[in-house]
Amino acid sequence: RKEVEQDPGPFNVPEGATVAFNCTYSNSASQSFFWYRQDCRKEPKLLMSVYSSGNEDGRFTAQLNRASQYISLLIRDSKLSDSATYLCVVNRGYSTLTFGKGTMLLVSP
Amino acid sequence: DAGVTQSPTHLIKTRGQQVTLRCSPKSGHDTVSWYQQALGQGPQFIFQYYEEEERQRGNFPDRFSGHQFPNYSSELNVNALLLGDSALYLCASSFMADNSPLHFGNGTRLTVT
Q1: How far, in Å, CA of B61 to CA of B76, rounded?
Q2: Which residues of B touch A44 (CB under 8 A)?
């Protein structure tokens, strides 16, 4: 079993749609959790940290369920500029990150 | 305030050669981590340097080695290059004490022919 598993993509959605990404992790000792966004041929960029209490940043909502070892990202009112690959990331400690394979999102007009 | 900078941006090598990639961390950061990202995959952790020593290592062969200098900058060396080493190599820096999220440089795209 892979350490971090994400929905296979790509997700094709129209502008304005709501889209949800799911992720599971296998190491229960993982310390912190993030979503990164990666544009084509660019470096990953931190989108948001994920907390058990849930956190929201504008149109983006992230949620962590430690008991189920499950992480989610919800994007509301999708924009064309949201088209990218979304990477689920787990911190094993000392800032050593384990990345999922990523899920590509394509938002069309 | 410069972020993480990497050089070169692109590199083409042939099988069997050796390559050195360079990284300067974000100002104030003392820890450098290296990742390899093959096409269509997420980044994979290679190793991490702190206080000029390798502190953590991922599942990569000894052909991958590194160094950190007193100014916190770092090098990644790969010997005896294989075609499968073709990838985007990403450097990230952080401050060891606060376990904060990593911020990545633009990466070096290595092509082995």
Answers
A1: 13
A2: 43, 90, 104
